[in-house]
Amino acid sequence: MDFYRLENNREAILSLLDERRALLQKLLRELEKSRQPHPEGMVKVIRHKKSFQYYWKKQSGAKWEYIPKAERERAERIINCEYAEEMRTQIADEIQFLNLVRKHPFPKGMEELYSKHSAGRKALIQRIVPTEEEFVQRFLSETYKSMSAFSENKKYETGKGELVRSKSEWMIAEALFKNGIPYHYEYPTRLKGYGVAYTDFCCLNVHRREIVLWEHLGRMGDEDYADTAIQKVRAYEETGYIQGKNLIITEESLGCQLTPAVINRWIERMLK
């Protein structure tokens, strides 16, 4: 079981419940503002071959009258009025349910449960769900073999004290380091139909406790490089890494360089 995401999912669920309740309340207010009185009568629909026939009657017990195509607007008004009323009822029911859910205190988080114990008891507890600090340390302590090819091209030293291959990779590494984002450089990732790709940066979103891969494509002006890069991106997608979800793709060419603003936007969007 992925215990690492357990606490984050708990907070995400609460946040989504509150967000949905607010959206439903807004929609209900809008429906109330546009509320129209129910048109006179009622409508029934009969399927006829490949089309529908509509009938109207003024009240219960009256005779059904066929509505000609030219007068179909009458049926439309009644049906939409009834649909809107059903929508208001359903929304109100869901809001009431969400209010009941949020009215009661939500059970305490796993971290709070652990922290209430004395130091002596903590020393003997075998934690089921790691703390955030433990999770980060497990990520950073992982050993792996990075790409050895062209290691002589690693010329740019980062604040973390490692060497990377390009100025753009240095910019990304520096931004990750300054923002306190744990990462591995040139991390081996097995991709379907591709083999092992040495992902430029394997990053950890500490808050979500999720891995986010960051691939920088630095020579998109080179046709052969661009073809290979596109194949790699497709392999990421086939393996389940989706841009904007758990994958960041940055690109540049001689005429369009990577900028710190682009890097920082991706960090804010995906890694904080």
Can you summarize this structure?
This protein is α+β, with helices and mostly antiparallel strands. The protein contains eight helices and nine strands.
Explain what this protein looks like in three dimensions.
This protein is an alpha+beta fold. The chain has two domains: 3-103, no CATH class; 132-270, Trna Endonuclease, Chain: A, domain 1, CATH 3.40.1350. The chain is built from eight helices and nine strands. It has helices at 6-33, 72-103, 110-115, 119-122, 132-140, 167-178, 223-239, 260-270, and strands at residues 42-48, 51-57, 65-66, 156-157, 163-164, 183-191, 195-205, 210-217, 247-251. The strands form three sheets. A four-stranded mixed β-sheet has the order 6-7-8-9. A three-stranded antiparallel β-sheet has the order 1-2-3, covered by helices on one side. A hairpin with a 3-residue loop joins strand 6 (183-191) and strand 7. The chain is flat and about 90 Å long. It starts with 5 loop residues before the first helix and ends with a helix.
